[in-house]
Amino acid sequence: MPRGFAIPLAAALLLAACGRSEPPPRAAPTGPMSGPACVRFLAARGVAVRPWQGGTRACPIDTPIRAAGGRLIGFTPPLQTSCATVSVWLDYEDELAEVGRSTMGSPVVGVRHYGSFACRRMTGNAGRPSLHAQARAIDMAAFVLADGQVITVADGWSGPSDQRRFLRAAAAAACRWFGVVLTPDSDRLHQDHIHVDLGPWRRCDV
Description:
Layout: H1 3-17, H2 35-44, E1 47-51, E2 64-70, E3 74-76, E4 80-82, H3 83-104, E5 108-113, E6 121-122, E7 125-129, E8 137-145, E9 150-152, H4 153-156, H5 161-175, E10 180-182, E11 194-197, E12 203-204
Parallel strand pairs: 3-5, 10-12
Antiparallel strand pairs: 1-2, 2-4, 5-8, 6-7, 8-9, 8-11, 10-11
Helix pairs in contact: 1-2, 2-3, 3-5
């Protein structure tokens, strides 16, 4: 990151703290974004963030942040990712809540995940860096509903019919906002989570 950019970015972060099938047409997302403009965008939409010293020399992250609270649903563990990922997640989150209401009778209020950043190559294609290497992906393992239910991908994808409907609807909704959505239908490496990332490739395994 250029030295001149680091100071205004830090200030903006502190201010904010105070494919198998072709996916359906994607609605126009508000992101991805980056830099201080992205942090200001999140703050304007009620998302509090903290600076995060994420990334490495080999795997730098554009505008690394830690989601600290506000409008975002609860993440377990706390979400450390790129600002771009959160800017897109916000639109998906609205749809995800409705999926919970329509299929399970209760909105989604939390997501348990396996992380966003990992400095590694793409699974199954070592010639390309994973989107996790830029913190432009999230691996969702379970969803927490307002009524206390916890639906895991590992047990629910082939589990009770209502959970199957919920998880497939959650994945299909993600396809409208994220470039790539991988599910237990994708391969043996995704049997316990739903992977979403910002692309630029397109794939929707639902």
